[in-house]
Amino acid sequence: MNLDLDDVSYGVDGTAILSDVSLSVGSGEVVTVIGPSGAGKTTLLRLAALFERPTGGALRCDRTDPWALSREDRLAVRRRIGMVFQRASLFETSVARNVDIGRRIRRPWPQRLRGFGRRLADRLVRDEPTVDDRVLEALELVGLGDAWDRDAASLSGGEAQRVSFARALATDPDLLVLDEPTSDLDPRNTAILEQAIDRSRERGHGVLLATHDMHQAERVSDRVAFLLDGELVEIGPAERVFEDPRDERTARFVRGDLLYDDNELLA
């Protein structure tokens, strides 16, 4: 899926949150959005995942405006997008069932019922739980292939976030939208998820990532976008943005300077 935002704006009750933002994410490309807290990164990602509708401009998925489609057709587009939030939200069941739930709810009801019947029959014959190959593959990509039958409540915070990532991967999305997925993780869990991002790129998935970790943005990104006060200040190849930014505000931000409320960066 190719995602294109052309002069996209978003506001609530007369308050502008995003103003005239233009960027694109192609297949097999990682685009990372950086910027201070409150810059509008999460809102931008929610628009990309079709959770919110732009109040201005145009958003297109493969050159089609999903908001011009019927609800059913728009839902079909949304099902091609996987989103991972900053904090894991798992159900009180096994790891495998947590990963598989995203795939199940995307199926029409007749397919869901047939799948339930197959799982029930399989359990009665085998007298033991089994795991779907795609679920197991997604768990292996995040280093949890041997944890599929564990209770989700037994996981550490880092493991739970990796399960959330696997749940998105199991749907085989065309576009992954990741909202600071490693912000609360230790270096080991962070490295595992970054490897999963690389594997997603290799598989041709587009990835739109928001992060506060500048080193992570340098490591995983093809292009980096700097968002400030709801406006896109700069976007370009990761190496160029970090080593030779075109805008002084970008240069000061990537150096780690603080930000005043009036958007004046400390010298």
From TrEMBL:
Ordered alphabetically, the record's keywords are: ATP-binding, Cell membrane, Membrane, Nucleotide-binding, Transport
Query: In this entry, which stretches build a coiled coil?
Result: none
Key word Signal present in the record? no
Per the record's keyword annotation, is Manganese included, yes or no?
A: no
Q: Name one GO molecular function term.
A: ATP binding
Q: Which InterPro entries match?
A: AAA+_ATPase (IPR003593), ABC_transporter-like_ATP-bd (IPR003439), ABC_transporter-like_CS (IPR017871), P-loop_NTPase (IPR027417), PstB-like (IPR005670)
Q: Where is the ABC transporter domain?
A: 3-254
Q: What is this protein called?
A: Phosphate ABC transporter ATP-binding protein
Taxonomic source organism: Natrinema salsiterrestre
